[in-house]
Design goal:
By secondary structure, this protein is mainly alpha-helical. It has one domain. Helices cover about 40% and strands about 5% of the residues. The chain has a two-stranded parallel ribbon with strand order 1-2. The protein starts with a helix and ends in a 7-residue tail after the last helix.
């Protein structure tokens, strides 16, 4: 289970960094073309216990993913970019463990999660 969680979190990290890179590329292209650049999105780091990433898929045919992160990513005129290091199946006690805290620090320091 832990390997599965690590793998999924690594995929999320890659996807988040790809969204940041795409935003930066789009912004640079707009500036080069003399267009007004888009407003900067809010970049968030989601860290919480299993309820923060609780999958509620399939509750209704009109709903996709209904967890908190999915809802945050659709809010506002400029959707926030969320790096989600929460995972269902993580115990609350795991949230304060040294490996989880090191993961949080690494995510905060990783320049790939930021835009300039």
């Amino acid at each position: 289970m832990r390997d599965s969680i690590k793998s999924e979190l690594a995929e999320r990290t890659q996807a988040h960094q790809a969204r940041i890179a795409a935003f930066q590329s789009n912004r640079a292209q707009m500036l080069a073309a003399g267009a007004a650049p888009p407003a900067n999105p809010l970049v968030l780091l989601a860290h919480g216990d299993s309820w923060f990433d609780y999958p509620l898929n399939g509750n209704d045919v009109t709903l996709g993913t209904t967890d908190i992160i999915a809802q945050l990513e659709t809010m506002g005129a400029i959707h926030p970019l969320v790096q989600n290091i929460s995972h269902f199946g993580d115990a609350t006690t795991e949230e304060m463990s040294l490996p989880k805290q090191q993961s949080l620090i690494q995510s905060l320091q990783d320049k790939g999660h930021k835009y300039t």
